[in-house]
Glycerophosphodiester phosphodiesterase
Amino acid sequence: MDPLVFAHRGASADLPEHTLAAYLRALDEGADGLECDVRLTRDGHLVCVHDRRLDRTSNGTGLVSARTLAELEALDFGSWHPGCAPSDGDEPPDESHTRLLTLERLLDAVLAAGRPVRLLIETKHPSRYGRDVERRLVALLRRYGLAEPGPDSPVRVTVMSFSPLAVRRVHDLAPGLPTVLLLDVLPRWLPPGRLPSGTRIAGPGVGLVRSRPRLLPTLRAAGNQVYVWTVNKPADLELVLDAGVDGIITDRPAHTLARLGR
Ligand code: G3P
Ligand code: CA
């Protein structure tokens, strides 16, 4: 079966990552799902931002966690990206290209898509925020009816983390939510092919997959689903397709879909 194609931070090769425009582009292109990172603002809101600091992806500086939602809403999260530069005669990019995306606005957008969408939500730095990220995330998903989705729910959420503790917390709070343990190295404590209890899916980085040729066959032989990130290069795409993975997380969903003939 073809793997699911997830747009990493939206169609982030073409448009500013984590903006509504990048996510809507990925849905237009036919991505099966979207990946996003979430952090907490100083006043406890979940916002879609990858970096700990604001400097790379906005016109602000300093820590995301040191700002309130209102302060972050005043920043420009898009103009740094070449895909946001207005070409001659075009309208300047609208606010969907430049405004901070809250997780609530992303959930509203996927629920309004009118077709099935998978959403991979990665909690960033759970140790810094204590239990708060997972607690607030599960509470928000519950409010949207997405923590225990029924069989007909068009939107399916999976929570991911590099932290086994965070994955375990999510599992304990909402056992119906699938979880991914992200791996950028192979932890010594994890026996080959095994995942910690509470984890449903393995999420190795493509660098790890390249350096450990036995990793994917071992994980799959043990009956695990595997989602690989971030698969942008053609050679990496062929590698994971040959291995028969279940999900591909990419900045370039249109290229991956074209390779799959979709
Ligand atoms: O999809 C998993 C991947 O996003 C993890 O790495 O740094 O891009 O969040 P990062
Ligand atoms: Ca991520």
Notes: The CA atoms of residues 35 and 50 lie 11 Å apart. The first strand starts at residue 4 and ends at 8.
